[in-house]
């Protein structure tokens, strides 16, 4: 696989980033810090006599303007309801999505914090309350432009890309056989849960997208927001063995159901959604491999060892999909 000679993100020099921010009426103080982000590019930019801003430059061709505005609109709805989310800043006309040369970008206030301790059940109750309030707003209406999380895009398209272009020959038959079984089982689970309601979700609700500060979480980065079952924003907070996950789930739902009802049938989707994330993650790395940041930060991807471990992981997921779902204590 060859890397592109000139990736679009190569244009994002410190000078370019500051010029883009200053095009919105700010005056930069020449402090520019690149933050950890791969799908997009995110910078902390110093502002004269003000707090720094976070400038997020969207990957060209991933989302169209209306899809990005829907992400921003959900964030504004949540912020207007006084929920602790980091929403984009708007200009006097209410616009949150800006253009500079060939890039779309947004500006955010800087919020400090650290990843939450997800093994602390009290923290999970707090997160559950916040998620319940978020979902109460998220289900008031549907996205018109953003897609839904489904087997076709996260599953079949991911498997097709990997099996046709990336999997080493010695693992191809094993990968195809394993993913064929997985997709068949996922289809069965999707049919069993066809009546589960889809709502506007965060979509990528893991600890890295939660900033904990002063005993309160702040949710950031709604870039993967899409229509999905509510449990999509819950299952990534679970870890450990089955008993521990059950305790964690019970704590989350103790807080969640104070504000929003939860359909226990959605628990059938927990391992199915985990499987789709695993399949999609490999395809995401493959699709982004020509971005120089990916070989630099994921050097293990597409190695013989990686694919051997990946197939083992997928077989473990196949076994997990045969097990009964988590159940609640109450």
What does this structure look like?
Helix 7 packs antiparallel against helix 9. The protein folds into two domains: 8-109, Phosphorylase Kinase, domain 1, CATH 3.30.200.20; 121-322, Transferase(Phosphotransferase) domain 1 (Transferase(Phosphotransferase), domain 1, Orthogonal Bundle). The N and C termini lie far apart (52 Å). It is of the alpha+beta class. The model has no long low-confidence stretch (mean pLDDT 94). The protein has nine helices and nine strands. It is 42% helix and 14% strand. Strands 1-2-3-5-4 form a five-stranded antiparallel beta sheet, covered by helices on one side. A two-stranded antiparallel sheet has the order 6-9. The chain has a two-stranded antiparallel sheet with strand order 7-8. The protein has helices at 14-22, 65-80, 121-138, 151-166, 169-192, 242-256, 270-287, 293-297, 304-322; strands spanning 28-34, 41-47, 50-57, 98-100, 103-109, 199-201, 210-213, 216-219, 226-228. The radius of gyration is 21 Å and the shape is globular.
């Amino acid at each position: 696989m060859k890397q592109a000679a000139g990736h679009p993100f190569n244009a994002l020099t410190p000078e370019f980033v500051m010029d883009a921010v200053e095009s919105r009426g700010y005056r930069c103080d020449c402090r520019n810090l690149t933050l950890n982000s791969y799908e997009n590019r995110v910078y902390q930019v110093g502002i004269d006599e003000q707090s720094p801003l976070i400038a997020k430059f969207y990957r060209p061709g991933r989302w169209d303007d209306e899809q990005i505005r829907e992400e921003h609109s959900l964030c504004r709805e949540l912020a207007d309801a006084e929920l602790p989310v980091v929403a984009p800043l708007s200009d006097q006309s209410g616009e949150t999505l800006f253009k500079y040369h060939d890039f779309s970008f947004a500006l955010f206030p800087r919020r400090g914090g650290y990843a939450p301790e997800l093994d602390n059940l009290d923290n999970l109750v707090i997160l559950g309350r916040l998620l319940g309030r978020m979902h109460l707003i998220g289900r008031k209406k549907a996205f018109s432009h953003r897609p839904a999380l489904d087997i076709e895009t996260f599953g079949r398209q991911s498997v097709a890309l990997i099996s046709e272009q990336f999997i080493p020959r010695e693992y191809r038959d094993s990968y195809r056989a394993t993913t064929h079984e997985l997709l068949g089982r996922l289809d069965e689970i999707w049919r069993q849960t066809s009546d589960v309601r889809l709502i506007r979700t965060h979509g990528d609700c893991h600890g890295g997208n939660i900033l904990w500060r002063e005993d309160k979480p702040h949710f950031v980065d709604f870039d993967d927001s899409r229509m999905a079952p509510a449990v999509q924003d819950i299952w990534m907070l679970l870890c450990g063995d089955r008993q521990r996950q059950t305790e964690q789930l019970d704590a989350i739902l103790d807080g969640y159901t104070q504000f929003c009802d939860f359909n226990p049938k959605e628990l059938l989707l927990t391992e199915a959604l985990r499987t789709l994330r695993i399949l999609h993650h490999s395809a995401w790395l493959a699709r982004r491999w020509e971005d120089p940041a990916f070989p630099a930060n994921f050097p293990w991807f597409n190695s013989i060892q990686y694919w051997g471990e990946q197939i083992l992981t997928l077989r473990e997921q196949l076994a997990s999909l045969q097990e009964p779902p988590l159940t609640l204590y109450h």
